[in-house]
Every structure is written in structure tokens, then in C-alpha cells.
Specification:
43% helix, three-stranded antiparallel beta sheet, 363 residues, alpha/beta, seven-stranded mixed beta sheet
Length: 363
Amino acid sequence: MNVKNWEVGSTWYAEYFNSDVDYQEHLNRLEADWNVTLLSTCRSAVSIVLSKLGSGKRALIPSFTCHSVVSPFINAGYEFKGYPLTENLEIDINGLSILVESFRPDVILIHGYFGFDTLCIASEYIEWCRAQGIIIIEDMTQTMFSTFRRPNTDYAVGSIRKWLPVPDGAFLSNVRISGLKEDMPLVEAKMEAMQAKSKYIVHGVGAKDFMPKFVEAESILDSRTKPFAISNFSLSMLDDIELHDLARCRRDNYNNLVTRLQAHPEISVVFPNASDDEVPFLLPVYISEGRSDFQRYMAQHNVYPTIIWKCPEELYRELSPAVRRIYDSILCFHVDQRYDKDDMNKVADIIDSYFLTINDNDQ
């Protein structure tokens, strides 16, 4: 990555957004071809589905998830519970089946993790639930570019903006909505933040003081109670993205960094290899001891592995031991298309130096 101020991780940055073209015809064609509605955010996609199904229903959602997944169910007046997972992030089928029998949900939300086929083991049971009349929603945010077979579901949603340097973007399948407006306050706040970061990272201009701008943009997003259409700015960026290159780059970065991590038994990689039908979202590992110290050391060297989610308080009390360990130990490295093999080797060198320092201090 040829930049003035090197870093790996954290928020997206971008220099150029084209707003001069009217993308309505392009938007209509994409939505018709994909049988989706393109929206500003994924949480609004979930909210639209729940509003179609009606309020006051029961839902099961993964117990390892984020608040933006939980909040639409709260806002729709749903009673919900979290179902358990195993430590390799697959559905605990026995735990899910017990909840289906006792809780009798109207809706089950599923999502795969980090680009890998974590739903495969439960596919038959998920499809059995659907045959019993339970509505199945798949959140494809972390797996949308992977090509493995998926369970048959009623609706699919996903956040495009988590994968690409765009100010907004999400999709909702099997529902068509027209006439939505762009969320320009959100888009403009996000663009300002992304462009300020680009000036600093790419060109070395300005100071590293752009994070408050991202916080401001997220606060706008959190305040929204109605859906918006994807912006022209994001559509203009989508036109320029080569998905084959995105997939190849992420797989290569993932597998290169995994190879280097094998030198450190203190780090347990959740998925040891990204295959041709898997496009990694992040590289998740477990660090059972010293996770905060490790993360702090990496940040001091401009690498920002993330603790992807804080447990939503609505799910905390009923976590299984396996899911509690996930929240307590997981850490995720960025391996996206901003980076190349040299960047991954540099990240690995910093990891090597951390454990060398730790081992020297222990002697």
C-alpha cells in the first residue's frame, strides 16, 4: 500500500465521489436484475421486513451479534432470544432446536460469519423450520461475496458499506420499495470523514483528527427511524469496483497472514484457510490472555485489529459459555482490498515483535 501515513484497519477512506450523474436508471436496473431494494443501511432493511410481518411477534437471533441487528427487533416490539453458537461460530443445532420448541418463534434471523460457511451444518434444520412456517431472514453482511450454497430463506439483507469505501449502501431481497429519498445528511457527514482520512493517509496532509467526524456520522445513522435509498455517491463508487479483484485480494491477504500467525500458539485462528468459494470479511482469532495489551501494542504501531462487537445488553444474561468466550477472546484483523502481501507481512512482523517482547519480559 503506497501511502504517506501507513496503517492497517479502522475506518474506510476515499478521495473521490461522483455526484454529477443521475443514477436512477442504473439503480432501477440493478434492483430489477437482483430482485432487491437498494437502501442506505442494513438495519433499515431488517426493519422493513419486520414491519411487513407485523408487530408483537417472537424472534430468535444469533447470540453473537451487534446492537444494530438487535435494535430493529426492539423497535418493532418483538420478543426475542439469542440462540447459542459453538466456538467455531457454527449454530449450536441442539440449542437452537430447544429454543424453537420452547419459545415457538415466528422469525429466525441467521447470519454467517467473516465470509465462511458457518451455516452449512444447520442448513437442513433451518430449512425444516421454514417448512414449519417460521420466517427465515438471512443477514448476508459478512458473506455476501462468498459463493457457497446457502439455506433457502424468505428474505436476505446485507450491508454493502461494510465491504467498500462508500458512504452508505445495503440491500433487501424479495421486497420492492420505490420513491425513497437519499439520506444526504448522513452521506455528506460520512464523505467528509472519509475524505479527511484519505488526505491524511494517502497524501500526508492534515492531522490525524478525523475520527470525531466518523463518530458524528454514526450518530446520524443511529438517529434514523425510517428507511432511505442508497445514495448516488455510493452507486457511483459501485460502478468502479471489480468484484473478482476484491475477492482475490481478500483471500490472498487472509491466507498470507494466517501462514505467519501459525508461529504463535497464543493466537488461535478460527478459520485456518480461505477457499475459492469464500471471500473473507475479516480474519478472526482468539486471544485468551492479554487481548487488550496485544491490541494496544498493535495500535501503537498503526495496526488496528478490532473487537468486532460488544455484547448487546439484551442478550448478555443468557449467553452460553461458548458464546461468552467468543465475546471475551475474539479479535479481528483487517485483510481487505486496501492492502497487499507487503502490508500483511508488515502486520505479521509487528505481531512477531510483540510476542518477542512478551517472551523477553517473562524470562
